[in-house]
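Re: export button greyed out
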Amino acid sequence: MNLLRNQSGGSEVYYQPRQNHDQAHPWSVSMKYNSGWQAVITPGFVDGSDPYYAPLSAGLCAEPNISLSETQDVTSIPPFFVNFGAVPPAQDASLQADANGNLALLVNQQAASGCCSGGVGRLLKSCDIWVVIARASYAVAVDMPADLVVGNLVDYTVTYNTQTLSHYGSRPRLQTGPSMPSTSSATLAERLAGDYSDDGQDYMLVATVYFLSRTQDNPDFSAKLDETWLPYVQNACFWNVSYRAANIPPVTLQQNSISPFLAWYIGQYTLAGQDVLGAMSAAEQNIYNSVFNANATMGTFYTA
Amino acid sequence: MGGGLYSQSTPGSLAIYAAKEPLFRGAWYVSGGIIGQGSKAMITVWIDRGYVNGLQPMIGKILMSGDAQSPPPAITVPAKFDAEGRAWVGILINIDPATGNLRNTTQAKLTENDLTISIQTTTIIPSANGSIFFHPIAVIRKNLSPIQIAYFDYQWGTVQQHGIWRHFLIPS
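Workaround output, generated via the alternate export path:
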């Protein structure tokens, strides 16, 4: 015990960092059932800021009860749970068309798994808890001068897109769901059309929570997630982190370039030599490589 | 109070607060108390020493672990908290924006601007402006126990990117 003593006759109140989880690390997830499964997370920090949990309008420092109502059925059973008799969810044997239009017999996976045939296996569900943080991404403006056909070219202006950052601010946010999304990149066509390069958010997995049912021949078995299911927490983050977006200022590229089609088109109707057109294509490719193909603002989480 | 703590505070009696001794305290361990009563009550914290690039931060003009003449200095947390009842104590790194180097501390008498690596408190985490970088080591909560953020000594480094200094603290 580390006792601190009062030093001035009743006017001092001492306290120390909380240790009620027996050395629980930051982001440690505890589970409880209260009309639904809830997680309580030992506060973790991104650059010293505790993530904000919007549904309860509270930061992690307030230790909100985080509802884990959205789960997914686990179809690829991790080895750890195979030893407990977990099986994929049962599916009716039926004829279904695959992506190529071929009919195939979809067998009952539970019966086919061998170890737990006869409907006695346990079901497994999971959900993810993650931190998401907003940042700037890129936006591309495409300007085609009026004299394009006679050989003048296309201008690309790259700027910051702060739409997500303006909406959510820079404070990290805590979210839950069946599966953590990943940063969604825009396609090259979308970028050329002026859409921003990605969704302007970076994600860090905090934990995956698995729920294991009772065996299906148990009288207390429930196919619906309730208090008869056992939660298992697989923590993915054990320390507080820092976050840095790449944050490279956009370069205003007012270089001239053309698309391959325009190069061909111009080649048919102008006297421009193939070497000139080749140089134009090379310049264009350089722009693609340096700007459009790089998610240059994507950030990184690291232990701090 | 936070979990694991108990209190007894009848007037004039001994009030003892004890948290379970952590198995791993690490560097920068923050403990503290409320000294005084009523409007004169102040939150004061003590911080176990930690190092940045092998250097101890300063508290005021004294090394955080004290020296031959002075005990480890205490820090008084600002009376105000943010809207969520939080304040931070952390490491403030102050560089020369022209060179990116830590400000000179070799002169005999330090001034406020010379506090190259110091311990400071704040109710809002300042954004890095190039020459100033603040890294929180604990959240101080109004009427609640603090929450430790930093556990490690650090190596600090900076890179200049498009004219802006970016700071990195790597646990070491």
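Residues 274-292 of chain A form the longest helix (19 residues). The button fix ships in the next patch.
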